[in-house]
Design goal:
Largest sheet: 8 strands, mixed
Shape: globular
Amino acid sequence: MNKYRTHFCSELQLVDVGKNVIISGWIHRKRDHGNLLFVDIRDHYGITQCVTENNNKHFAQIEKAKPESVIKIEGTVIKRAKGTENLDLKTGKIEIKINKIEILSHSQDLPLPVFGEQDYPEDIRLKYRFLDLRRDEIHKNIELRSNVIYFIRSELTKLGFLEFQTPILTSSSPEGARDFLVPSRLNPGKFYALPQAPQQFKQLIMVSGFDKYFQIAPCFRDEDARADRSPGEFYQLDLEMSFVEQEDVFKVVESLLVKLFKKFSTKKIMQEIFPRISYAETMIKYGTDKPDLRNPLIIHEVTEIFSREDVKFEIFKNLVKNGAEVRAIVTKNTKDKPRSFFDNIDKWAKDQGASGLAYFSIVEDKGIIGKGPIGKFFSSNSLEEIMKICNAKIGDTVFLACGKKDELERILSIARQKIAKDLNLIDENKFAFCWIIDYPMFEYNEINKKIEFSHNPFSMPQGDVKNIDFNNPLEIKAYQYDIVCNGIELSSGAIRNHIPELMYKLFEVAGYNKKSVEEKFSGMINALSYGAPPHGGIAPGLDRILMLLANKENIREVTLFPMNQNAQDLMMNAPSEVDKDQLKELSIKIDKKRD
């Protein structure tokens, strides 16, 4: 190919025996057998074993070279001795007998090893990310990222989507997360904002007459880090379509994701037509709008049971009289589990800040009875009613929680996952997608005591837009939807509101007058006033998709150069201070906080 290599380190096979070749790469590891020195050379493509005898004039030079030094080797391909083959390597049946070497670049002592996959502290991995990325597993994850993006681009292009790049320097948005601000030198005292998402621009593209748009879009939000969210920045597959309804968006996204997950994973997709679950239904059945459908456990509403005279569980009955609700989770055929199993679940719930999880098993002994700490408080008739509501059978166990709606949803959503994992009910070799639909347009903020948008303020409300009941805003549903896989939210999307007069009314409900809407969203409102098509879209998170495909629980493992939990780039020392001249040019003074 050139003076550095005739072959990659993954190419040489038995058919190449006898050839004189050149390879270049990093010293992956060395094994000194006294009279023989084996050196594994690694490049992006693979590993080739090289060998030299101690009488070779280059022996001492290779022996002194440290791991991860970059080396060029010229030699002859030979067949490995019988019994020494390494079938885990593509090149495992051959090796190169070294004739000549050249050290292209020396390495210092390593702060973390590249050979092997042992875990290392996050600060070391991020400071020396360029070394971390040489390690096989994460190297493959980042290669997967590139291949996934290429596949997405190819598939959407086939469907007639055009790829555009929207601005990075834009205006601040009053909705959503905290913005990253950029001072303007030419406009002293004013600031740009980095886009939290290309939301307004993607809609403006539709207003501009383009029919289908997509972008691998960088998004910037000044939020705290989580395992499934990078601090500062992330990427999403942003797409928008004109003249579409909700189902049109679903068909495109379902087809793309099914093809993508089939190509890049061996796990089975449970349902290729993703279930549609209303927001109201998912909050009852799963306690969350991010349900893991691999988990067969369902939450049931059983509050009415505690108004019966033949139920004597007074603690719950008194709470219900004061407005509490009761919900249940049923586990199948668990009556013979040791009491420690149930007590550990109850203790776990208390550790999560709940009052615990009461429980009983349904058994038959001269009639239906409840076995367990609270079983005696239920008559046979009340147990039969619970069995009917919860689809429970003899031998099943019922876990009960009582409290306010929000607290019940919180504890039972995580209890559902905890119990399923303890019972080994979740099939880790499956992907379970679903759509969450029919989100409420508004929600009431108990802290601020005001009505707010629950999702996306630019969404189209459901129903006859000319006869919306603005006197009952919490009853208004929107064409808003989330896509969820294995309990991870991949994306939010919506059919957009393209009618300015309707937008003013909806923003008024959330406390924005017409003037403030025109100030904050001048570009959008102005554009919609000149003829806008019905349109909608979605923006699946690329990083989260890659987490699922790579079977990783931390987004850092699929991100090239991530920040740490404090939004710091340890490798490049960012954020950093800037000198006074730069600040002066930007008309900025730093007011340092005193300890």
